[in-house]
Amino acid sequence: MKIISFLKSSISLSLLIVVVYGCNTAEESLLNKETAQGEWLIQAAHLDNGFYRPITRQLTFKGDSVHLKNLSSENKNSYKLEFRQDSLVFDTLVFPIRRYRVNGDKLYFGKWLAHRVIPSDPVDIFRFKELLLSSYWENEKGVFHFEKDYKVKYMPKDTNTYLRHCFELVSYEDKVFLLKKGNQLACDRDFQFIEQVLSVSENQIEVFGFVDGDYKKITYNTTAKPQKNIDPVSFQLCNPYINKNYPVDRYYGKGTEYNGGLYHIRKIFAKTYKAPEDSEESGIFQVRFVVNCEGKAGMFEKQAFDYDYNPKEFSDTISNQIFEITKSLQDWVPGRNQRNNEVIDTYIYISFRIKDGKIIRIYP
């Protein structure tokens, strides 16, 4: 019943979808029985302005039914489907038809974005795996090294570091899909945007996927092994698609705390922070950052306000001290997903109330 649960939870987002996609254009039309037919690959969920999260599902409309399959699973769910003039009925649940639109080969399925599966030449999945392992591959984002244990190192452009991920090859309906996923802790979660393999040669792989908010063809070319030393990053998001403006990411994780609690953080600042003499600066200084699923902190940001929460700036003597001491706090207990108890990345806020240059209170 995953699709039904999703549809129930999406009703409140209908206004957002109307704003994002606007009114119908000459190329865009409401979903109907004729335009829906066929296979679609759901690749993204549009959760915020310019913010998308990967989805890895196959959606097939066939006559008066719809079939939904998670590409990383063998399970397929089927539902009775009815198109009405102003509504779409899944089994017995009714939803406004305006939330489901087709624009050429693109499908806006509530907050999900899908694209028709592209016809392509058959790809031998075993040969394709051997080809992946045989070389380093480069696309517009960076260099990838696929390894025998289904691990992959990703070296972003213009960096001397690499990220650790995993990969999986999935064959479905004579099509092959490349899934990148996982993190330093596990390979069975935290999917990235899926890519349909279109063509394969000894020196080039062409895929189709969702990049920077739109669908496009992506080309991987063989490249030489980097000669310089490449080190693992010191801080890596376990879920690279966490977003500070998305309420679920900001508030859903529970249990993130510093070892020793807020009491220990206050002790560190009492010992380390040196208030400037004769300072008359007062207000609130706030540091926002992410604690990843390993308990490491990164992605630090700062902002400051007066007591009425109007933006202000503190002197470097104050702001640099607080910011650097906060960045040194690296002994965190990671938060957990309430549904399955998995450790996850979470956003954390620490606020400092300052009077005459002195920290008089530290609070979440």
Summarize the structure in short.
With 364 residues, this protein is of the alpha+beta class. It has helices at 2-10, 14-21, 33-36, 125-133, 247-251, 261-272, 316-327; strands spanning 28-30, 38-48, 51-62, 65-70, 76-83, 87-90, 93-96, 100-103, 106-109, 112-116, 136-139, 142-146, 151-156, 161-172, 175-181, 195-200, 204-211, 214-223, 231-232, 257-258, 283-291, 297-305, 332-333, 335-336, 343-344, 346-355, 358-363. The radius of gyration is 24 Å and the shape is globular.
Descriptive report:
By secondary structure, this protein is α+β, with helices and mostly antiparallel strands. Helix content is 16%, strand content 45%. The protein has helices at residues 2-10, 14-21, 33-36, 125-133, 247-251, 261-272, 316-327; strands at residues 28-30, 38-48, 51-62, 65-70, 76-83, 87-90, 93-96, 100-103, 106-109, 112-116, 136-139, 142-146, 151-156, 161-172, 175-181, 195-200, 204-211, 214-223, 231-232, 257-258, 283-291, 297-305, 332-333, 335-336, 343-344, 346-355, 358-363. The strands form 5 sheets. The chain has a 10-stranded antiparallel β-sheet with strand order 1-8-9-10-2-3-4-5-6-7. Strands 11-12-13-14-15-16-17-18 form an 8-stranded antiparallel beta barrel. Strand 8 and strand 9 (106-109) form a beta hairpin. Mean pLDDT is 88; it is low at 1-26.
